[in-house]
Design goal:
Blueprint: E1 10-14, H1 19-30, E2 34-39, H2 42-56, E3 60-64, H3 72-80, E4 89-92, H4 107-135, E5 138-143, H5 156-175, E6 181-187, H6 195-199, E7 201-203, H7 205-209, H8 214-226, E8 231-233, H9 236-245, H10 253-264, E9 265-267, H11 268-272
Parallel strand pairs: 1-2, 1-4, 2-3, 4-5, 5-6, 6-8
Antiparallel strand pairs: 7-9
Helix pairs in contact: 1-2, 1-8, 3-4, 4-5
The structure holds NADP nicotinamide-adenine-dinucleotide phosphate (NAP).
């Protein structure tokens, strides 16, 4: 990388203990940004922090927070901006899904998912956007999904949370016009991470073939953010598929999505003979 485009900036990455968030943190550090890494698993965050400090020589702080707790976003803001740690780049990446019939998923899991994927993301955007706007600079990156583009049976709440993130983020970027602050929404397709395991999905051969590396997804996300894009679908085939979806009658979308999902994934618990009703709400898988 020739010129470090984020030297002197500080980025906060939620969900940095694995997958896409960990890879985004590395790309941001390679661009010269100092980091605040946020998730629940401290050891994972500390190990990543050591690795990034050694590789890129930037300052890396670790903040352990369960963002599914209703007061966590405000606490995180206090622990950062409240203590003089200005955040120039906010990456709202933490999120999880639950792959099962809506009624079979325990309510606590739905509630934790909506709190994390939507409420915490929105509150963090609100808190940091105000601080960024006052400084007349900043970037907010919200991670949605290609699930945002269609109602998804067996992923009903998850896909709906991502549709919310997509719509919210695009409107936010429009509102921020001229303020020096930008928002971008990244819509990844299947990406290698712990997501499938946490969501109770087992990939089939077709699903495996369509997967992207988290590092590739992260590179695309940061590059597009620095280019000033508002909304991005990662990967050419994903982008073409999401574009084509707009030509289908809306009434067809649940069936089409269900068929596509069935070709790519199955329920891991069904394969093992268990049930997701036993899963704890949004618990880390490792
Ligand atoms: N992988 C895919 O195929 C895919 C596709 C489309 C969109 N996405 C989206 O991409 C984002 C990143 O997911 P990923 O694929 O990288 O999955 P992942 O490997 O499971 O990472 C999820 C991250 O979120 C953190 N997290 C989960 N619950 C949390 C909580 N209550 N409080 C704080 N942090 C929490 C996890 O850390 P701890 O467990 O340590 O808290 C972890 O760092 C998610 O928003 C996901 O919806 C993923």
């Amino acid at each position: 990388m020739s010129k470090k485009r984020l030297s002197g900036r500080r980025a906060l990455v939620t969900g940095a203990s694995s997958g896409i968030g960990a890879e985004i943190a590395k790309v941001l550090a390679a661009e010269g940004a100092g980091l605040i890494l946020v998730a629940r698993r401290r050891e994972r965050l500390e190990a990543l922090a050591d690795q990034i400090r050694a590789a890129h020589g930037v300052e890396v702080l670790v903040e352990v927070q369960d963002l599914a707790e209703p007061d966590a976003a405000a606490r995180l803001f206090e622990r950062t901006e409240g203590e003089g740690q200005a955040v120039d780049v906010l990456i709202n990446n933490a999120g999880f899904g639950a792959f099962e019939h809506f009624v079979a998923i325990p309510w606590e899991r739905h509630a934790a998912m909506m709190q994390l994927n939507m409420v915490a993301l929105t509150q963090l955007s609100w808190l940091y956007a105000r601080a960024m706007r006052a400084r007349k600079r900043g970037n907010i990156m919200n991670i949605a999904s290609i699930g945002a583009y269609s109602p998804s049976p067996d992923f009903a709440v998850y896909a709906a949370t991502k549709a919310y993130v997509r719509n919210f983020s695009e409107a936010l970027d429009y509102e921020l016009k001229g303020s020096g602050v930008r928002a971008i929404v990244i819509n990844p397709g299947g990406t290698h991470s712990e997501f499938a395991q946490v969501s109770d999905q087992k990939l089939k051969k077709m699903g495996e073939m369509a997967m992207m590396d988290a590092s590739t997804c992260a590179r695309i996300a940061v590059t597009k953010m620095l280019r000033g894009r508002r909304t991005v679908v990662t990967g050419f085939m994903n982008a073409v598929s999401m574009w084509l979806l707009r030509f289908l009658p809306r009434a067809w979308l649940p069936r089409v999505t269900s068929l596509v999902m069935a070709s790519a994934v199955e329920k891991a618990s069904a394969v093992k003979g268990g049930t997701t009703e036993q899963a704890a709400p949004g618990q880390p898988s490792a």
